[in-house]
Write a structure and sequence with these properties.
Elements (H helix, E strand, L loop, with lengths): L9 H8 L2 H10 L19 H6 L11
């Protein structure tokens, strides 16, 4: 296991280093709960609807539409 200094959250390290497909494989191999439901869109956070309503210049990420 490798982690950046004082970060304490390995999931974000994995997101930084691996593609969504590789990340799903890693989560499945480590038997993490819900790993079989991991999709490419889960690699990104959706923009909350209130933010989209407040600022019409931004758009939701295409995977979350």
């Amino acid at each position: 296991m490798l982690e950046l200094c004082m970060e304490g959250q390995r999931y974000f390290d994995l997101k930084r280093w691996y593609t969504p497909e590789q990340l799903k494989t890693i989560l499945t191999q480590n038997e993490k709960q819900g790993a079989e439901n991991f999709q490419a869109k889960h690699y990104y956070y959706p923009i909350p609807q209130l933010e989209i309503n407040a600022n019409h210049a931004i758009q939701q990420h295409p995977l979350w539409r």
